[in-house]
Amino acid sequence: MLNVDNIVVSVRNGPDIVRGVSFRIEPGEILGLVGESGSGKSMTSLALMGLLPPALHLSAGSITQDGADVTHLAPHERVRRKCGKMAMVFQEPMTSLNPVLRIAEQIEEAVRVHDPDTDASPRARELLDMVRIPDTAHQMRSFPHELSGGMRQRVMIAIALACRPQVLIADEPTTALDVTVQLQVLGLIRDLCNRLDMGVLFITHDLGVVAQLADRVAVMYAGSLVENADVEPLFRAPLHPYTGALMACLPNPESDDAVMATISGSAPRPGAIPPGCPFSPRCSRAQQPCLSGPVPCARGVAGQTAMCHFPLNESVLA
Ligand SMILES: Nc1ncnc2c1ncn2[C@@H]1O[C@H](COP(=O)(O)OP(=O)(O)O)[C@@H](O)[C@H]1O
Ligand SMILES: [Mg+2]
Question: Where along the chain do its domains lie?
């Protein structure tokens, strides 16, 4: 229902930051977008929302939602035309909530924008119930600073749901939360996705979170998607060496190693991305063909794809 086709996000008169990214998200499905910090995850999501900062622009590709082309539609145009209904939740709710307005006023304001004919107060109550905030009457009268981090993130999700989005984009929504609270918020997102038959783009640098939550995974490196797969085959047998290296970095409680694995080197900056495979300078499998020219797409038997000359786990290649 959301179809992202080969989008490129560029700095005006500068390098490309997102370099031809494509994916689909179906209703009721969670796509986990994972990659190191700086790989272009947030700029991909802002491009989908029509919210790129002024220094950046969507220079190629298309975004369609429910058959409507929303590629260059600003958020207010989407509200007016009643198409491209997406909403976004960010890492730090305090930067999105207004510190001097009570929770009720902030949710009701969102309701008035999207449902002008609805009575805002009961609808706000209903939204808070949907995100399982206990004692809604009391919480509605609170100011943001009176709530815990987890509760604030639930309020942000409630505000996001006010537009009845077909797609919810969550950009590292649990990164700032304690592990137990993180689990509750992940459970809530899964539950909302199922109940509202809503697509979710869940962005994280944490492969462990993706394993718990996502149906499908897209792995991003230096502005490109290097691997796409259903979650189960991805964790059983990754094809791309970068995905494999990320998995090797996950903490393993059964291992006796005192030192955690890391990927040597660092990700290239936009404008300094090497020719050929962008991961080749850090890849232990890289050979001559990886250093220049186009990279082929390797396909696995479970429908997984990876941009790689020499994929891992050859036994699962189609
Ligand atoms: N306004 C901007 N002007 C120039 N470069 C930017 C701007 N915003 C972000 N970038 C660059 O875009 C790249 C991707 O950023 P981002 O999407 O935020 O990464 P991620 O969310 O994966 O950590 C980074 O290298 C960052 O430095
Ligand atoms: Mg980010």
Answer: 2-85+165-252+260-316
Do the beta carbons of residue 234 and residue 217 sit within 8 Å? yes
Q: Long-range contacts of range 142-149, CB-CB < 8 Å, 24 or more positions apart?
A: 142/102, 142/103, 143/99, 143/100, 143/101, 143/102, 143/103, 144/93, 144/94, 144/97, 144/98, 144/99, 144/103, 145/94, 145/99, 147/103, 148/181, 149/93, 149/176, 149/177, 149/178, 149/181
Which one is the CATH code of 2-85+165-252+260-316: 3.40.50.300, 3.30.390.50, 3.40.50.620, 3.40.640.10?
3.40.50.300
pTM: 0.95
Ligand with smallest separation from the Cα of 36: 1
pLDDT at 112 > cutoff 90 = yes
Note the helical H segments in 40-148: 41-49, 75-81, 93-96, 103-114, 120-130, 136-140
Contact (Cβ atoms closer than 8 angstroms) between residue 49 and residue 305: no
CA of 38 to the centre of ligand 1 (A): 6
The pLDDT assigned to 273 comes to: 95
User: Residue 43 pLDDT more than 90?
Assistant: yes
Mean pLDDT value across the chain: 94
The pocket around ligand 1, CB under 6 angstroms, is made up of 11, 17, 35, 37-43, 53, 55-56, 269-270
Supply the residue whose CA is at minimum distance from atom 24 of ligand 1.
38
